[in-house]
Amino acid sequence: MKIYFCGSIRGGRSDLQLYQRIVHELHKYGSVLTEHVGSAELSDTDLVEDNIPQSPVLSSPPVLSPFSPVPCSSHRQVEAQDAFSCGSVKVCVQQSRESSRFQLSDKEEPPGLLYHQSQRDSDEEGEEGTTGGDRDIHDRDVDWLQQSDVVVAEVTQPSLGVGYELGRAVDMKKKKTLCLFRPSSGRTLSAMIRGAADGERFLVRDYSEDELEKILEEFFSSLK
Ligand SMILES: O=c1[nH]c(=O)n([C@H]2C[C@H](O)[C@@H](COP(=O)(O)O)O2)cc1CO
């Protein structure tokens, strides 16, 4: 069985470790065409001190100093001077090489407040060194999508690429698709994904990480 796994790359790599677990698990059921989605080489979550987050609404950056890492796989906690209240807040920030972006963690993120670094050139992100660049990545992935027997997507971290792949998969009439979403993230899944669920060919499953193996087992045994 050929499995196409979708997970965020340029959309943000905060779920990388989970993608690795999913890819590992999917190997039990077939060959995973998009193994690279779980590759640690496509991410770099090290906090670089000269890349201090800047608020788009402030003339000077908030004062941030590195704080000891919290027991959170993909974020670091920093203490930040809150320029709005003049108080001190603790926030989790994330920076990945793919997005060059700092983002407040899901749990602590006030609505609409994100600290962004400017994006790097797109050819520095995702799969580097692909000779034909983004065109080759796109064409190869659409080809793999067509070849695949099933699509499994982790959709908690929003990603344009994953959304696009799922839209294309819906149009490939016999493609069975499982979308996995973690409500514990505090996010709300796009209506364009949840609303596409038909309970048969396109499934959307809310889950927690400890249910992963069981859910995949159920999904793949339902295909037999
Ligand atoms: O370098 C890449 N390689 C690649 O295969 N993709 C595909 C696979 C992923 O499921 C999806 C991720 O999209 P995005 O990068 O917009 O988060 O797109 C995406 C990129 C970068 O956009």
The CATH topology of the largest domain: Rossmann fold
Helix content: 10-25%
Average pLDDT: 75
Report the CATH C-level class of the largest domain: Alpha Beta
Question: What compounds are bound to the protein?
Answer: 5-hydroxymethyluridine-2'-deoxy-5'-monophosphate
**Biggest sheet: strands, sense, closure?**
5 strands, parallel
SS elements, strand count: 8
> What is the number of domains?
2
End-to-end gap? 11 Å
Strand order of the largest sheet: 2-1-6-7-8
Backbone shape: globular
Could you please describe the fold and organization of this structure?
InterPro entries: 2'-dNMP_N-hydrolase (IPR051239), DNPH1 (IPR028607), Nucleoside_deoxyribTrfase (IPR007710). Substrate binds at residues 4-10, 19, 165, 190-192. It is an enzyme of class 3 (hydrolase). Its EC number is 3.2.2.-. Its main location: cytoplasm. Helices cover 24% and strands 18% of the residues. With 224 residues, it is an alpha/beta fold. The protein has two domains: 2-55 and 127-221, 3-Layer(aba) Sandwich (Rossmann fold); 59-116, no CATH class. The strands form two sheets. Strands 2-1-6-7-8 form a five-stranded parallel β-sheet, sandwiched between helices. A hairpin with a 4-residue loop joins strand 4 and strand 5. The radius of gyration is 19 Å and the shape is globular. The chain starts with a strand and ends with a helix. The protein binds 5-hydroxymethyluridine-2'-deoxy-5'-monophosphate. 5-hydroxymethyluridine-2'-deoxy-5'-monophosphate (5HU) is lined by residues 6-11, 34, 37, 126-127, 137, 141, 159-162, 165.
